[in-house]
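Changelog-linked ticket: hydroxy diiron-OXO moiety example.
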Amino acid sequence: MLPSEIEKRLNEQVARESASSALYLSMASWCESHSLDGCAAFLYRQSDEERTHMLKLMKYINDAGGHALVPAVPQPKTHFSGVREVFEDVLASESSITQSIHELVDLCTRLKDYTTLHFLQWYVTEQHEEEKLSRTILDKLNILGTESPGLYLFDKEITSLKVDTQIGASPEA
Ligand code: OFO
């Protein structure tokens, strides 16, 4: 049985993943409206992934005897000064989600909820990879620049980037 404090915190995480999905969707729409089709495709995909993170949590809560609650979705940021701001916001958002996952892991350790602790390991790995990917994207943006023709190349390049969920995997693995 899920301890009630953990159920509450998992439901808060459901809300965070949902807000993250909405933020990525808003970023994708902004990029699409600025003809950054590669960035838009990447961000639409990320939005879908965040929704699957939310659903995975909801299923876990219900399977463990709790009740997963569908959260209200806050209005995400809709305007960005440029593509750099979009990806700086991505990194800030992912870092804050990592922090909340780590706090959940701390709570499970304190309450000796080893089943949820085990379940959360997938999120720990995922967040490590998401943050790594966000930093890689910002590095590429710094190399290529935010003006034409670098931005054009960046918009093409980003479509090939995705999360590698194997920590420490070699590029060929
Ligand atoms: Fe689900 O927040 Fe990142 O991946």
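Closing comment: Example verified and attached. The CA atoms of residues 95 and 131 lie 7 Å apart. Helices lie at 4-33, 37-63, 83-110, 114-144, 150-157.
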